[in-house]
Amino acid sequence: MNALRQFWSNVFAVAYKEAVMVRHDQALLATLTAQPIIMLLLFGAAISNKPANVPWLVLDRSQTTLSRQLVEEIEHTGYFLAPRYVESYDQGQALMKKGEGLAFLVIPSEFRREAERSVPQVQLLLDGSDPLSASRVGAYITQVAGALDVKGTAARLLPNEPVDVRHRFWFNPTLADRTFFLAGLAGMLLTNLCLSATSLGIVGERENGTYEQMLSLPTTPIQLLLGKLVPYVGLSYFLLALSTLLSGVVFGYWPRGSFITLIIITLPFVLASLSIGVLVSTLASTSAQAVFITVFFILPSFVLSGSMFPYQLMPDGVRQVGGLLPLRWYQIALRRVGERGAGLSEVLGPMAILTLLFAVFIGLAASRMKPRLE
Amino acid sequence: MNWRRLRTLMLREVRATFRSVFTVTVLIAVPIAALMVFGFVLSTEITGLTLGLLDGSQTPASRELIAELTAKGTFKPYHYATREELERGLVGGEISAAIIIPPAFGRGARGPGNAESPQLQVLYDGGEAVLAGNAEGFLRSMVGLNGATIITQAIKPSMPVSTPGVHVVTRALFNPKLAGAPFMVSGTFGFVLSFLTVLLTAVSIVNERLTGTFEQLQVTPATGVEILLGKILPLGAIFTFDVILMVLLAGFVLHVWPQGSALFFVVVSAFYVLVSLAMGVIISASSATAAEAVQKSVMLSIPLVQLSGFAFPTRNMPMAVQWFSEIFPATHYIRLARAIYIRAEGPSDLMFELFLLGIFGALLVRAALRSIEARA
Questions:
Q1: CB atoms within 10 A of CB B360
Q2: pLDDT range class, residue B104, cuts 50, 70, 90
Q3: Which of A36, A306, B37, B284 could form a disulfide with B205 if both were Cys (CB 3.0 to 4.6 A apart)?
Q4: Which of A119, A129, A176 sits opposite B163 (nearest CB)?
């Protein structure tokens, strides 16, 4: 009993010392407030996968009311800029090659006549250099064209589509990318904080020689480690609250599930990320190297975790590698709670994996963090 | 400018760079890792998407529709018995999309005078916006195509086949399969060259300042221009080697070769490396410690990576942000890289962008020179 009290007393002594240091670290505090704001603006207002302002070219060989109607209806979907009319096929292709059009619609001269007889055809060339936008723009145009009323209103009385499919998007009716990014935002911010703060903190102490001073105290490596992590857990919750509040107030995105669930699932993730930070610190010998390793760990983890691109579409192998990252499971849990309003019972799976990852990483870190007096 | 002095400085820089194991590891490992990570992540194809199915009708028509949808391996079907279970699956993230076939499907349309189309309901998990967007496009065409044949054959052969308004024949230029890899590979050059160059120069100069060797350089007869060139030319050569390494790796591993002239691409990249290195010199001048320099480069690089169009097309951004993104040299370099890599554009098509990159280069090298001389 006494030994246990002694253990935690040591841990909290280190935690207190660490908290005092954090409080005096102006650069860290400035980064902590600036980063959520920058990331929020980037992901909330700037970045989007949804095509917008799409430049497109039209070669209208038909020059009839019908062809103009088609062009007009495509333009009215709102994804496109005003069309640029070209004189010839070659001119259109040359402009496509220069990247001045994402789509090139060719309406043949017999368009009107074909429409009277059967189904008229048009040709659509897409710029494959931006595949995501190209495939979506292709789908929009195909859909608008397919629904075009070519034979006058009489034909309209018949059902136009063989199967009437009602598409509905749950949790995000307008399919806005903003919701996708904002739901994962807290995960990215916490990854940044947990990894860079711990790795830099520990390497910095080693550089200054204060780490060796601590080793001469009656604390064991595991006590040191836990003590160093405690203040950052507090900071992480502050950051979670800040990012939730900001995305709610600025962009109107509030989590649908309960805050308590969010708070619970955050703990194993923060602990796992902090342990990775400690692990990084044992690999680096200078703080410049520590930041370097951290950065090149953080960026791929944003990408592979599914915070920026859906991980479901990644090929096998790559997807499994992403599964080793705590951020993968945390962003899954965040989306379930934040976007779909899931309760605690529906995020138990990701939570269990996060706890496991924490155990593995802290074990690795503690085994490498030997008292080093060289 | 004295050629012999410059040569000595360059030799010194090369030796210093290759002596640091960490730097050499980073120079080789980061480009490879970046290509491997980014080359695979973007995909417009859907495979193995989890699809919930609720067949309320249990007719030959509905079973045929389900068989058609799951035949190609695009979807992994999950069958549900009730709507509640299906909805729970969607909330719990088990399935990404769901098709609900109502009891009337395949039956209701049989009655005389009933011209209504059979109905289907498709639910998507909008939480995964990109995924839902891709799945929607796919399901629209699938159901539209197969639905038509199934319905006309199985249910109402007497009904006039309704026709689509206009048939669109689509062809994607430069990248017929709309693969994600070429887009990401050409962007990765921008990412690696912007990030790694700034980081490495900044750290190397700050470290020299801390150990005092930079001041030793400044008391030698070497001029500011020579010191600057002695720093960025050898590093530029090393990074050009990195560019070639990445081109080969992308070609052999990801099967993405430059469609345009590879030589032209390497030359443009080498010039861009010098621009980036100059930026690193400027950052180093305003940092007291190496860690601070690294943190500054990171703070600069995060918006740079997000806004330069590396992963997200700048076109989709609001106008004000688009204008802002133009001030990053990386935006222009990535545009050039895509043009050469995917659309096979040559120097004559890219005059304007090359000109802009040239101006950036001139301005940044000038500023870098000032920052070196200011400390003298």
A1: 21
A2: confident
A3: B284
A4: A119
More confident residue, B102 or B172: B102
Instruction: Encode chain B in three state secondary structure.
Output: CCHHHHHHHHHHHHHHHHHCHHHHHHHHHHHHHHHHHHHHHCCCCCCCEEEEEEECCCCHHHHHHHHHHHHCCCEEEEECCCHHHHHHHHHCCCCCEEEEECCCCCCHHHCCCCCCCCEEEEEEECCCHHHHHHHHHHHHHHHHHHHHHHHHHHHCCCCCCCCCCCEEEEEEECCCCCCCHHHHHHHHHHHHHHHHHHHHHHHHHHHHHHHCHHHHHHHCCCCHHHHHHHHHHHHHHHHHHHHHHHHHHHHHHHCCCCCCCHHHHHHHHHHHHHHHHHHHHHHHHCCCCHHHHHHHHHHHHHHHHHHCCCCCCHHHCCHHHHHHHCCCHHHHHHHHHHHHHCCCCCCCCCHHHHHHHHHHHHHHHHHHHHHHHHCC
What's A346's DSSP letter? Answer: G
Judged by CB atoms closer than 8 Å, whether chains meet at A139 and B140 is answered as: yes
Pairwise CA distance, residues A130 & A122, whole Å: 22
In this model, does residue A320 exceed pLDDT 80?
yes
pLDDT band at B288 (very low <50, low <70, confident <90, very high): confident
- Asked if B173 lies within 8 A of A126 by C-beta distance, the reply is yes
Read off the tokens for A54: 């799409």
Q: Please answer yes or no on whether A313 and B306 come within 8 Å at the CB atom.
A: no
Of A47, A124, A177, nearest to B169 by CB-CB distance is A124
Q: Does the structure show a pLDDT above 50 at A203?
A: yes
| A:158-197 residues touching chain B, CB 8 A cutoff | 158-173, 175-177, 179-180, 183
Angle at A141 between CA A138 and CA A146, to 5 degrees: 120
A contact test, residue of B43, B128, B134, B142 with most A CBs within 10 A: B128
> Does the distance separating the beta carbons of A161 and B170 come in below 8 Å?
no
Q: Is A8 on the interface with B (CB under 8 A)?
A: no
In sequence order, what are the residues at sequence separation of 6 or more whose Cβ sits closer than 8 angstroms to the Cβ of residue B320?
none
Token pair for residue A313?
Answer: 């579409």
Cα(A245)–Cα(A248) distance, rounded to whole angstroms? 5
A163–B143 C-beta distance less than 8 A: yes
- With a cut of 0.95, is the ipTM above it? no
Contacts of A350 in chain B (CB under 8 A): none
CB A214 within 8 A of CB A373: no
The Cα–Cα gap between B135 and B133 comes to 6
Tokens of A212: 């060796």
Question: What is the residue whose two structure tokens read 């919750």?
Answer: A237
| Dihedral sign computed on CA atoms, order A345, A349, A350, A356 | positive
pLDDT digits (tens, 9 = 90+) for A260-294: 999 999 999 999 999 898 888 888 877 778 877 88
Which 3 state secondary structure label does DSSP give A284?
coil
Is the Cβ of A335 closer than 8 Å to some Cβ of chain B?
yes
Cα dist from B334 to A191, A351, B326, whole Å:
27, 39, 11
At residue B217, the pLDDT reads: 81
| More confident call, B220 vs B152 | B220
- Report CB contact under 8 Å: B312, A341: no
Contacts of B117 in chain A (CB under 8 A): 159, 161-164
pTM of the model: 0.79
Q: Is B194 on the interface with A (CB under 8 A)?
A: no
Contacts of residue A139, defined as CB under 8 A and 6 or more positions apart, other chains included, come to B136, B137, B140, B141
C-beta atoms of B298 and A295 within 8 A: yes
Reported as a pLDDT band with limits 50, 70 and 90, residue A344 is: confident
Chain segment B51-71, per-residue pLDDT in tens: 888 888 788 777 877 777 777
Q: Which two tokens stand for residue A71?
A: 């062009």
